[in-house]
Amino acid sequence: MKSSFKKFYLLIALIAFGNMVNAQLPNEKFGKPSSMEWDFVGWGDAINADAIILCKTMKVTYQLSDQVFNSNRTDYELGSDNIDDFGKNQIDLENALVKYEFKLRTKILKPEGVKHANIDITYFNLNDDVAISTDALTDLKIRVFSKNDKGKVEKRSINTNGFIKERVDNNYMVLHVEVPDVEAGSIIEYQYNITSNRPAFLYDWSFQDVIPTVCSKCDIDIPAFLQFKMNVPINKLIKSSVEAGRLAYDTNRTDLKRDKSCVTNHYKIAGDFILPLQENQNGDDAKKEIIANFTSQINTPNIPLPAYMPEGVTHLKIK
After folding, report:
1. Do the Cβ atoms of 73 and 109 come closer than 8 Å?
2. Dist CA 82 CA 318 (whole Å)
3. Inter-residue contact 192 to 113 (CB < 8 Å)
4. Which terminus of the chain has a smaller tally of CB atoms within 10 A, N or C?
5. How many CA atoms lie within 13 A of 217 on its CB side?
6. Which residues contact residue 138 at a Cβ distance below 8 angstroms, ignoring those fewer than 6 apart?
């Protein structure tokens, strides 16, 4: 009888521990890994992984200038008396920027997983000296956290100036991020921004990688006049929602009578505890589960697209 009670309480304790893990993971606050992340070594089929993605997020928003146009009026007529409802006037797409904020936290579990501390960042860069439609990769920050023999956490910032850039094709460049002196037990954080002046284009996003992913999230806020076809992955592990939002214009004008903002479609897509791609016997990528990729395509009529507009690409790759 006592043995049965012990087994019962042990089961309750295991369930409680599992709920506690789920409650404290993921940790989306960067700069200090949580105690749960230091102890976490995976789940289910991911328990023997070499490395694991603890958290991966992409936030996308638009920066809109105050330049507007209306096909029924001349520039001269667009004065304070005529722009009573600023939201009804279209934004000049040549003065719209797409702002990406990216964050990634990876934990190395085994010595064989050290290679997964290295990443490739792919970004649009037209191979044309006179082109201005080129994305800017900025504010790259990398931190390595480790514990010393006394269990004290030590933080080390990585110098990002020496990373190698390589041209992929006429449209894209890749930055090869090589993180030195990483060992089993290390946690690595990466942060960077991408600024693009191609408002009719969004990068793809991959929820599934070569190593297990605890949490992956997209937060995308798009002006409503830009209609995208959003191909959200059909997967029980992926949850998505869309709601109306508002975005303030980046303006210094003082002659506008109403709020300087526009309506947006605010998409939130999140995936939890996603297993990695597996290789079959032929060495090809096989689907252990549905490959969880998010893609988009502009669907708004009368939006001019440049002739060199490439297909969307996932801009991050874990090695």
Report:
1. no
2. 52
3. no
4. N
5. 15
6. 192, 193, 194, 195
Question: For residue 155, how many other CB atoms are within 10 A of its CB?
Answer: 13
Distance from the Cα of residue 77 to its chain's centroid: 42
The model's pTM is 0.79
Query: In a structure prediction context, what are the per-residue pLDDT tens digits for the chain, which is 319 residues long?
Result: 555 544 444 444 444 444 444 446 667 778 888 888 898 888 888 888 999 999 999 999 998 875 444 433 343 333 333 333 444 445 566 678 899 999 999 999 999 999 999 999 999 887 766 566 788 999 999 999 998 888 888 899 999 998 999 988 888 889 999 999 999 999 999 999 999 988 888 898 988 899 999 999 999 999 888 888 888 777 788 888 989 988 887 765 555 545 577 888 999 999 999 988 765 445 454 444 456 778 888 877 666 665 555 566 778 888 8
Residue carrying the six token digits 């043995």: 3
